[in-house]
Specification:
The structure is a single chain. With about 90 residues, the protein is an all-alpha fold. It has four helices and no strands. It starts with a helix and ends in a 14-residue tail after the last helix.
Length: about 90
């Protein structure tokens, strides 16, 4: 069965932005289904800035391996840094 897109975005947001979920079971969280890991990491790479991911790593919402996996998926078209506000 294919992964549901609304769950991919929800899992990614809950892990990387709000810290209300984890990729794997730890810190009292059950973790997301393993079949979603790749899609959730890809979604985060395409949609979140490096400082969002840095904060998720610093807060312990993702670990170094998960962070490296997400950042390695970023391409030139993906947002890396927030635009400078003038």
């Amino acid at each position: 069965m294919a992964n549901l897109p609304f769950l991919v975005s929800t899992y990614s947001r809950n892990i990387n932005i709000f810290g209300k979920e984890r990729f794997t079971a730890r810190n009292g969280f059950k973790g997301i289904p393993e079949s979603y890991h790749s899609d959730v990491a890809g979604y985060a790479a395409r949609n979140y800035y490096i400082d969002d991911l840095d904060r998720a790593l610093a807060e312990g919402w993702i670990n170094q391996q998960e962070y490296d996996n997400i950042v390695s998926r970023k391409t030139a078209e993906d947002p890396a840094y927030r635009p400078v506000v003038k």
